[in-house]
Design goal:
The protein has 339 residues and is mainly beta. The protein has helices at 2-14, 36-39, 194-199, 245-249, and strands spanning 25-29, 32-33, 45-50, 56-60, 65-69, 76-80, 94-97, 103-107, 114-118, 124-129, 139-140, 143-144, 152-153, 157-161, 167-173, 178-184, 203-207, 213-217, 223-227, 233-238, 257-258, 267-268, 274-279, 285-289, 294-297, 303-310, 314-315, 319-322, 327-331, 335-338. The termini are far apart.
């Protein structure tokens, strides 16, 4: 009896009862998406989103371009094309659209980070460059996931991960001025190695439609935090599960250095455990692992689903977007799923 009382007391002390780390994997089979002849016209579709009008956008990272697709998914056309000058794209890393139809793209002509805002027709509305030169702290293959590669666009502001500022989330106005910072860096035990410490504090800032923000750490021990609209920390949760156990077991204690471009300093080679993440209309956080699994957490931080996406085969989404109630669209492949 005493033992049962101790267990109950432990649950009360630790808060709400958590679901077990191991749970059944749900298979979500594609129910549609862009026709193969349209998808095949893109070199590397890295983001696939839909706005309120019904029009779709496809961000073609390797093609240095953004395309539009009509609501019936029969026609595609180029909105923004390659080029170093303003209104064009060179070495782009991130894309995001807002429901009204405008969108932003981050690129890096001359290795200098730039963010541009476009109308739904591809007309440049504005933009700004960040000071200094781009530092690729976290990469997956040739894709930069950190810095401007982590941006989200609300229509009125842009948020991104910039741990070098001393905060997890930095919010910018559309004219390029930083308006506020949210979240303190987590301790890593590597504070004396600034590059490694910052890489282990890189992640994905996400706007919660229910209010506030999430921040998902992509490297080191996988963790996410939830903040309210004022930027106050609500809670922190570890990302755990049997699917992730091999990744956690292989976490290094010493990180090798990787050589950058000529004249640049060597940076620690820090690989991500989280590929991307998104928040659905209900405020649930979807965390896409670098393995082909996605963990879903409710607004209280409880893991409620383990999902695997399948199109022609198993898909490890590079982007995940919620297009209306009960629909998700993903890249690669530009597939659609019912949730």
């Amino acid at each position: 009896m005493r033992r049962h009382a101790f267990v109950l007391l432990s649950v009360v002390i630790w808060g709400t009862l958590q679901l077990p780390a191991s749970m059944r994997v749900e298979i979500l089979q594609s129910v549609g998406g862009l026709p193969p002849e349209i998808v095949g016209s893109y070199r590397e579709p890295a983001a696939f989103q839909q706005v309120r009008s019904g029009q779709y956008f496809v961000f073609d990272r390797r093609g240095h371009a953004v395309f539009g697709v009509d609501v019936n998914q029969t026609t595609t056309w180029k909105l923004v094309e390659i080029g170093e000058e303003a209104g064009r794209l060179l070495d782009p890393s991130a894309f995001d659209a807002e429901p009204g139809g405008s969108f932003v793209v981050a690129d890096a002509p001359g290795n200098r980070e730039r963010i541009q805002v476009f109308s739904g027709t591809g007309r440049r509305l504005g933009g700004f460059s960040l000071p200094g030169r781009a530092v690729a702290r976290v990469t997956m293959g040739s894709v930069v996931l950190s810095g401007i590669g982590s941006l989200q666009y609300t229509g009125a502001a842009i948020i991104m991960s910039q741990p070098e500022t001393g905060s997890l989330i930095t919010e910018y106005g559309l004219a390029g001025s930083a308006t506020r910072s949210i979240g303190i860096l987590r301790p890593t035990g590597h504070e004396q190695d600034a590059d490694l410490h910052l890489a282990l504090n890189s992640g994905l800032p996400l706007v919660n439609p229910k209010g506030g923000f999430y921040f998902v750490f992509q490297t080191g021990v996988p963790v996410f935090r939830k903040y309210d609209q004022a930027g106050r920390l609500l809670y922190e949760r570890h990302i755990e599960g049997v699917e992730l156990d091999p990744v956690l077991a292989a976490l290094p204690t010493v990180w090798p250095r990787r050589t950058g471009q000529a004249g640049e300093r060597e940076l620690p080679l820090v690989t991500p455990a989280v590929r991307t993440a998104a928040v659905d209309a209900g405020g649930n956080l979807w965390v896409v692992l670098t393995l082909p699994y996605t963990y879903v957490y409710d607004g209280d931080g409880n893991k409620v689903r383990v999902v695997q996406f399948r199109g022609a085969g198993i898909i490890s989404p590079s982007s995940l977007f919620f297009a209306g109630a009960g629909r998700a669209i993903v890249t690669p492949g530009c597939f659609e799923f019912k949730l």
